[in-house]
Amino acid sequence: MYVNRLALAACALLACSLAVCAHTAEPIEIEVVAVPGAPIQELQTWARVLGHMDLARVTLRGARGDEQPAVTSDEFGGVTRYKVLALLSTGDKLILPGGRFGLGDAKKLEAHLKGLPAALDEASIERGQFGLTKEDFATLVAAFSPPITESTIETPRNAWLEQMTRELPVPCEWSPAARRALASAEPLGIELQGLSRGAALTLALRQEGLALFPQQRRRDPLTVKIDKLANLQDAWPVGWKPTKSPRQTVPQAYKATTIEIANYSLAQALTALEGPLGARIVYDPYALAKNSIDPAKVMVKAPRKKLLIKSAVDTCLSQARLAGEWRVDEAGTVFYWVTRFGELSPRAP
Q1: For 243-270, how does the pLDDT look when each residue is reduced to its tens digit (9 = 90+)?
Q2: Whole-structure pTM value
Q3: How far apart are CA 224 and CA 163, in angstroms?
Q4: CB under 8 Å to 203, separation ≥6 — which residues?
Q5: According to the model, what pLDDT value does residue 337 have?
Q6: Model pLDDT, residue 8
Q7: From the CB of residue 222, how many other CB atoms can be counted at a distance below 10 Å?
Q8: What is the 3-state secondary structure (H, E, C) of the chain?
Q9: Class for domain 129-234, per CATH?
């Protein structure tokens, strides 16, 4: 039976009796709306269940048109109050934004209600890449933009990484696995000079099977964490997808010339082609190590014919089962990223 006038009157009286003032940091009011066909006889039971929770006010009434579960907030006297509209369904379930609960789910319901203010607050924050605010994303880009000015081949890996992360404008946390991976003071063994700090740092971390993850929850300060490679859509990448087309980004790479490659290793061929390509070629150390590919040992060849410079590079890469894509670092420097694409070697964002 639909909520009739008698039931509405009873609900109104019950609403008055359940109006309480709780001294909570985030006062939450809940208004339970009984939809047509809802078990009216259970309203008092729901009133008792809700009355034992730390809520500022509990109200029960009949539905008014096509109402839907919602949570809103307003501020009065410097205090933010949250108002929850819940529906009592025909199946005696309390339906709230983000969940539905039966009479036996009191603890889950209370936890859900307490979490709604945080969820509403989070929803009001405009976020972009990696879940960061525009301002915090810009902070990291600015910190990662300066180029590495000195050679890094002989630099101790752990000391260099410690310095790079210590100079970030936000706190950096190292996971236990990351700390163990950096226990050695072996040299980096790769040349990062000329790359932006962001590309250099993330490249050096990939060499150890690690990645940098920006982290920010609600309105907490931005932090970064160094951890194992995983869920790389959340990790800072080694370079970004160029905003312009490839031919606009590196026009020199799309010039045709007669090329012949014979008795060259992949490393030798790419070194010879790097100048004509018009951009630096950067290997993905993680992909090469994982797939046991040594560019100095893989022999490549290309018959004499007219090719685009980029096509010649790609022909060589394919013989090592590798591929490449254009990327730009935080300073806007273009490079050709050489890897084997996969779950832990995603394309540039």
Answers
A1: 999 999 999 999 999 999 999 999 999 9
A2: 0.69
A3: 15
A4: 190, 192, 195, 238, 282, 285
A5: 98
A6: 42
A7: 20
A8: CCCCHHHHHHHHHHHHHHECCCCCCCCEEEEEEECCCCCHHHHHHHHHHHHCCCCCEEEEEECCCCCCCEEEEEEECCEEEEEEEEEECCCCCEEECCEEECHHHHHHHHHHHHHHHHHHHHHCCCCCHHHCCHHHHHHHHHHHCCECCCCCCCCEHHHHHHHHHHCCCCCEEECHHHHHHCCCCCECCCCCCCCEHHHHHHHHHHHCCEEEEEECCCCCCCEEEEEECCCHHHCCCCCECCCCCHHHHCHHHHCEEEEEEEEEEHHHHHHHHHHHHCCEEEECHHHHHHCCCCCCCCEEEEEEEEEEHHHHHHHHHHCCCCEEEEEECCCCCEEEEEECCECCECCCC
A9: alpha beta
- Tell me the two tokens of residue 232: 């790389």
Q: Are 129-234 and 246-339 the same fold in CATH?
A: yes
CA distance 38 to 56: 25
Q: For residue 139, name the pLDDT band (cuts at 50, 70, 90).
A: very high
Alpha carbon distance 309, 255 (integer Å)? 6
Reading the block at residue 31, the tokens are 């208004």
Which of the listed CATH numbers 3.40.1000, 3.30.1330, 2.60.120, 3.55.50 matches domain 246-339?
Answer: 3.55.50
265, 295 Cβ separation under 8 angstroms: yes
Place of tokens 């160029």: 242
Q: How far apart are CA 202 and CA 213, in angstroms?
A: 10
The predicted-structure confidence for 124-135, as pLDDT tens digits, reads as follows: 556 667 878 888
Q: Give the start-to-end residue ranges of the domains of the chain.
A: 5-123, 129-234, 246-339
Q: What does the alpha-carbon distance between residue 55 and residue 51 come to, in Å, rounded to a whole number? A: 7
